[in-house]
């Protein structure tokens, strides 16, 4: 008779991908090289008052020049996949017309380097760096931007489709639409709720047309997906009023994107709730059919749950919605909803650590999109990491965070979910948008004075998980 250990090792399926993720503007630097022109993030970060300390991605972590070193580091750690994004203005500086070969060549070299090291590339086409010229022509609230995206998708698909199997059209269109055009804490920094809803529709259309364009030029074995920062929205109390608040925010966070993408329609409750802001007349005949493309997989980005209630109309005070400081809300037509801090331990972003939310999220999409393979395309935590006197960086909090969330993924797989891989956000410390370089999400530490890279203890822990396919034990857990 065998003795059952108190805890058995948390083991993953053999083909499970162990990845890390980054995005172009957050790591590349070299913003004026190879014919690249400004994106909305260059303009925004160079506008006084928009980012912490006026920090920009001008140099970032200089990945454009150090990609070989970075790929070698991933290989040394044992990662089996890497998710990165292509900078649109590096490939198509004005957002229109012929591609710049130097720009495409950079990504081809990066992909070849990954493949030579046995690392599977996953390409995100749009991680928020819209060519400034397209914003000057109206940006995402305009239909034209979606048409231009489809052309850009085709160019990149033609250039890399023979060697990249995994494709993601958009990263977190919620952030592009609502942080970019409603609260204004992200580029282009506009604060127009009606425009943000138009932006959401044209991002959806870009996804649909971009998916068609990719498929028209790529081998059919390739997979096309989208990465949504799908929120887990919970009520403060189970009253009808608080449940109505959940419905409102769930429509604005999730339904506005997965409604058309997965089911071919916007939620009725979203259309009625936003009727005072927009009549949705820019949703043209055929748009929903174009957006409702069969997907090969769905990418979920998860950090923290969202807790809401019906607002007390007399209550005034700061909004605890964790989306940066702005007097403008990223939630159009939701003045009657109040946001609350989920109780519990938090990361350096102020985001509550809640792995059960990730399990909930995976199970929700398992029900909502039966048969669709899922990837966790981002999950991770910012901590105030500092090297010790011996130069090593110890981040036990991040190890605990990763252990908790990977265990939640494993539980979801046991419960019947088809999760094929996990991409830690982020491979290395980088430009955390409006927060600048102060928030470190990396598994690898970057010394911003020298740009030297040092794997933190979490990188070694995660690398061991990747090499063995099961989670190394964490002392004290
Ligand atoms: C995501 N919010 O951003 C992005 O995909 C990454 O580029 C980023 O570095 C990472 O998560 C960490 O922040 C988000 O306010 C930014 O809800 C803001 C929010 C969510 C995700």
TrEMBL record:
Pfam families: Glyco_hydro_1
Active-site positions on this chain: 378
Keyword Nucleotide-binding annotated: no
Keywords: Carbohydrate metabolism, Cellulose degradation, Glycosidase, Hydrolase, Polysaccharide degradation
Domain of life: Bacteria
Known EC number: 3.2.1.21
Keyword Hydrolase on entry: yes
GO molecular function: beta-glucosidase activity
InterPro entries: GH, GH_1_N_CS, Glyco_hydro_1, Glyco_hydro_1_AS, Glyco_hydro_1_beta-glucosidase
PROSITE patterns linked: GLYCOSYL_HYDROL_F1_1, GLYCOSYL_HYDROL_F1_2
Catalysed conversion reaction: Hydrolysis of terminal, non-reducing beta-D-glucosyl residues with release of beta-D-glucose
Signal peptide region: none
PANTHER family: GLYCOSYL HYDROLASE, LP05116P
Family statement: Belongs to the glycosyl hydrolase 1 family.
Protein name: Beta-glucosidase
Highest classification ranks of the organism: Bacteria, Bacillati, Actinomycetota, Actinomycetes, Kitasatosporales
